[in-house]
Design brief:
single chain, Rossmann fold, 4 helices
Length: 129
C-alpha cells in the first residue's frame, strides 16, 4: 500500500464520540489530508462528512481507496462482500479485528488486506509491513 496513492478512506463503524478509537483514528487521518467517508447507519454526519449506512450506499462516483474497519469480527464477511462489490483495492482491519476466512476471500478477489493493525499508528511510522 502506498500512502501517497490514497485519497479517500471509508471508515466502517466510525463513531461521533471523540473518546472512541474510530473517531480518533479517522480525525487523525482527516487532519493528514485524507477524505473520510463515515459508514455508520445510526449517524447522519461525522467529522463534517455525510455518513452512509453501508459501503454499498456510498454513491458510485465516490472512489474509495481504503475500507478501514472498526467493527466486530463477526460482521467482517459482509464488509468483505461490499468491499469486493465496490472494487476497493485495500481492506484495513483495525487492531483486534481479525477474520482469517474473510481476509482470504478478499485476497482471492485481488484486495490487499491489512489485519489487526492500527491505521494511525502505521501512518505515523510511515511504513506498512
Amino acid at each position: 500500500m502506498d500512502w501517497h496513492e490514497i485519497k479517500t478512506i471509508a471508515v466502517v463503524g466510525l463513531s461521533d464520540n471523540p473518546e472512541r478509537a474510530s473517531y480518533r483514528v479517522a480525525k487523525y487521518l482527516q487532519d493528514q489530508g485524507y477524505r473520510i467517508i463515515p459508514v455508520n447507519p445510526t449517524k447522519d454526519r461525522v467529522l463534517g462528512e455525510k455518513s452512509y449506512a453501508s459501503l454499498i450506499d456510498i454513491p458510485q462516483d465516490i472512489k474509495i481507496d481504503v475500507v478501514d474497519v472498526f467493527r466486530k469480527p463477526a460482521v467482517v464477511p459482509e464488509i468483505v462482500e461490499q468491499t469486493i462489490a465496490r472494487n476497493v483495492p485495500v481492506l484495513w482491519l483495525q487492531e483486534g479485528v481479525v477474520h482469517n476466512a474473510a481476509a482470504e476471500k478478499a485476497r482471492a478477489a485481488g484486495i490487499e488486506v491489512i489485519m489487526d493493525k492500527c491505521m494511525m499508528k502505521e501512518h505515523r511510522k510511515g511504513v506498512v509491513s
